[in-house]
Amino acid sequence: MEQVRMWRAPGEGRVLLMAGRTTRYAVDPRGEYVFGVVGGEPMRSWRGRQKRVVRPGQLVAWDPSYPHSGRSVDESRPWDARLMVIEVADLAALAEDAEADPLADVLFPEPVLNDPELAAGFLRLHATLEAPSSRLEQDERLVEWLRLLIDRTSAIRSARPAITSQDDRALRSALEYLADQPERNVGLDELAGVAGIGKFRLIRLFRQRTGLPPHALQLAHRIRAARRLLEAGVPIAEAAEATGFADQSHLHRHFQRSLGMTPAEYQHRFG
User: 3-state DSSP helix/strand/coil percent for the chain, to nearest 5?
Assistant: First the structure.
């Protein structure tokens, strides 16, 4: 039993918003954070071997470290939720302040948060991103809420291993190359050539900085590009071809694993 709608706020394409009722879900967050508030009924959540009960009014903050899933405590009674999905790169861009220390990896070791102030702030933010509002108001509320959440609840930002300026330039070049053309069948030799460093060193840098190997990040880019095409009403087969998937079934398999729904379901619920 699912009644879920999805949308993006006008002018704020970095955030995917959801609202509705469901009795179960399963998500493999490839380089994405999922935030939300549960209402109505409780739900049971699983992440790895960890099991939790999320009660109405509690905030969830899922980082990309593990797949997670949920199921209603009573299968006949769905829970309500408002959710927000933000890509890792966008979270850093939104929450980082040039005058503060650079934002490193943000982890939420305890993803179920019993913090009424943060939960209420999230609901106000969600309403702002749903209703007509100025871009400035959207940006202010989003940045302020993210900073409060990170400062109050995240783990001490994990220290990133020191890398040289050459490594940093190489990684940025490789990241931009994959992001700019996710549909291309890029090989590791080609990607290392763009970066100007060795293949194994490049793989290590990817894992250190993104938590993903190059091929997994490329897949994440492809899925996100396919989302945008589906949101615009592009037929599924065309979206699969345009974003580098072998065929429609290939997109279907990875899309469902990533977001817990098929491309057709996503396209139906969006808007």
Answer: 45, 25, 30
Which tens digit of pLDDT belongs to each residue from 158-179? 445 567 788 888 988 998 999 8
Q: What gap in Å lies between CA 86 and CA 210, rounded to an integer? A: 14
**AA letter at 176:** E
Token digits of residue 233: 């009403």
Q: Please state the domain extents for the chain.
A: 3-153, 165-269
How many whole angstroms from its chain centre is CA 65? Answer: 11
Nearest to 5 by CA among 141, 132, 152, 126: 126
Backbone angles phi, psi at 186, to 5 degrees: -80, 130
The sign one gets for the Cα dihedral 250, 254, 257, 259 is: negative
Contact (Cβ atoms closer than 8 angstroms) between residue 184 and residue 244? yes
Indicate the pTM of the whole model. 0.74
The domain made up of 165-269 has a fold known as Arc Repressor Mutant, subunit A (1.10.10)
- Strands 79-87 and 12-22, by their bridges, are antiparallel
Identify residue 37 by its one-letter amino acid code. Answer: V
What does the pLDDT look like over 222-236, one tens digit per residue?
Answer: 998 999 999 999 999
Q: Which CATH architecture has domain 3-153?
A: Sandwich (2.60)
Determine contact, residues 102/60, Cβ cutoff 8 Å.
no
